[in-house]
Amino acid sequence: MPIHLEIVTAEKTALSEDVDQINVPTKDGQIGVLPRHCALITILATGELDIIKDGERTGFAVSGGFMEVLPTRVMILADTIERADEIDEARAERARRMAEERIQQQKDPHKVAELRGDLYRALTRLKVAQSRRIRRKM
Amino acid sequence: MPSTREVRRRIRSAKNVAQITRAMEMVAASKMRKAQRNVLAARPYAERLWDVMGELTARMTGGKRKDTLLDVRKEIKNVGLIIITPDRGLCGSLVSNVLRRSSRFNNEQRNQGRAVQFYAVGKKGSDFLQRNQFDITYRLTRLGDTPKLVDTLSVANHVIMDFLEHKQDEAYVIYTQFVNTLVQQTMLKQLLPIEPPVESKRERNDYTYEPDQEQVLEELLPRFVESQIYQAILESIASEHSARMVAMRNATDSAKDLVQDLTQTYNKVRQSAITNEVSEIASGALSLMEG
To answer: What does pTM read for this prediction?
Structure first.
C-alpha cells in the first residue's frame, strides 16, 4: 500500500505521486513516514528529505515548512524545495562561502543567528547534491 | 480641404500606431497566460494552509490569541494598507480603480479617527501616494512578471512586524482580482488580524502535533499572511496583463477605424483635385473654342 505524497510550495506543486516511504527533517529530528502512520501535523526543519519508491531513493533539500500526515496521504507545505539534481552546486558553494565570511564580520548576535541559518541551508544543499553524485558513481 | 500629402502622412502614422498596439496586445496576451498559470499553481498551497489553520484555530480562543496574528484589538488607532499596482501604465482603468479605492479607504478610516500607513507594491501606486503626500512606510517596485515568493516576503515581514509591535492594529490589502480576461475586480481584503475559518468543512482527524499546537500555529500564521500577499500580487499581475491586452486591442481597433476614415478622406481629396483639374482644362478648351 503506497502513500500518496504531495509537495507544494507557495509557487507551485512540486511533486504529486505515490511513494513507499518518506524521510523528513522535522523540528524535533529526522522522522520516517511509512503507510498507516497516525495523523500528524508537524513543523519541518532545514535538511534532507528522502523519498523511497520501489527501492529507489530520491533526495531533496528542504528549508522549513509543514507536513500533514494521514494514513494514506502526506502533504508537505515546503518553504523551498529542490531536487538533488536541480541543485546548482557552484551557487550553493558561493552561498556557503559568503555566509561564512559574513559570520566572521558580524557582531550582532541576532544577525549571526540569521546568517547561521543561511549557512546551514547552503550546507544542506551541498550535502544533498554531493550524496547524489557519490551514489551515481557506484 | 487638407492636401493629399497631408492625409497620406496621417494614414501612415495611424497604421504605425495600429502595428505597435497590435504587437503590445500580443505580448500582453502571452504574459497573461503565463500569469494565469502562476495564479492557479499558487492556489493549492494557500488552500492547504487554510485547512490546517482551521483545525488549529478552532481550539484556540480569546486570551490565547493575544500576541499572535489573530489578536483582535479593542481600540483601533492605526491601520496599514498594502496597495498593489503595476509598474507600468497603458492598462486601461486598472490603476485608477485601485487608487480611487485606496483614497476612499483612507477617507473612511480617517473619518473614524484612524491613521492609515501605506505599503506600496508597484511603481504606479507608489508614485501616486508620494504625489499626494500619503504616509508611505514601505515600497516595493520592479517585481517583474513572475515574482517568486521570496521577492515578496519583505512586504509581508514589514506588515507582520508593524502589527506585532502595535504600530498598527489592523492591516488590509487592495489589489485587482483576476476574474477572466475581460473582468478584473478591485478588491479590499483584511489581512490582519487573521480571520480564521469559522468551521472546517472536512472530516475531523485527531492529529498529533509536533512539537505542539501553539508552536505549529506560530509558524503557520506568518506564512498564511505571506501567501495571501503573494497571491494578491499574482492576481494583480494577471489582471494587469489582461487589462493591457484589452486596452491595446481597443487601441488597435480605433487606429484601424481611423485609417479607414482617413482613406476615405484621401480618396475624396484626390477625386476633387482631379475634378478641379479636368474642369479647368474643359473650361480652358471651351473658352478657346468660343474665341
So the answer is: 0.88
